[in-house]
Write a structure and sequence with these properties.
about 190 residues; elongated
Length: about 190
């Protein structure tokens, strides 16, 4: 979802900037522009003295401008922080029974899940990623299935073997998972 929103926003911003920039550049080089276009040629300014001073005496003007710019900055910062936010869980908190707890590297759990899922019959390759919180991790897994594989048995094998082993070794009560299955592209077999 976030990837789609990013692409749409970047595409929209890029399109607007390209159109406006191209039109201003064309007007600056003396190209013919429509009558409603605010800039006509290379000697024209973007904001005239009259435009800059038009709202100066209005009491509402500066608060509205500052509020609009503040909202724009907040939205831009939110977007930036969502890009920088880690998707992967770097560590899992394991209850060691002594009240202190232990930390298990998230990458080690991911590697173990990936390796064990890759050994399931009918799975060509697999990838597992830990998300969520340290105390309540979640698994997002993708498995590429071979042409002869049965999706149900591959999914049961992942849940009963790989996921159960990871849950037990980390001492977790639950380890929810989202598994996406996809078939490996292959050529059609010739029948003789």
């Amino acid at each position: 979802m976030l990837r789609t929103v990013n692409r749409l926003l970047l595409g929209l911003v890029g399109l607007v900037l390209a159109v406006v920039g191209g039109a201003v550049l064309a007007a600056g080089f003396g190209a013919a522009v429509p009558s409603w276009w605010p800039w006509y040629g290379p000697r024209d300014v973007l904001l005239s003295d009259a435009d800059r001073n038009r709202w100066r005496d209005e009491g509402w003007w500066w608060p509205v401008v500052i509020a609009a710019l503040a909202v724009l900055v907040i939205v831009a910062l939110w977007w930036l922080f969502t890009q920088l936010r880690r998707r992967r869980l770097s560590e899992v908190l394991v209850d060691s029974g002594d009240g202190e707890g232990a930390v298990l590297r998230g990458r080690a759990v991911e590697d173990a899940l990936t390796e064990e899922a890759g050994r399931i019959d009918g799975v060509d390759r697999a990838q597992a990623v830990l998300t969520g919180r340290r105390e309540a991790p979640r698994v997002r897994a993708r498995m590429m299935l071979e042409p002869h594989a049965a999706p149900g048995s591959a999914l049961r094998g992942f849940a009963d073997e790989a996921l159960a082993h990871a849950r037990n070794s980390a001492g977790l009560d639950a380890l929810p998972a989202e598994v996406r299955l996809k078939a490996v592209k292959h050529r059609a077999e010739r029948v003789s």
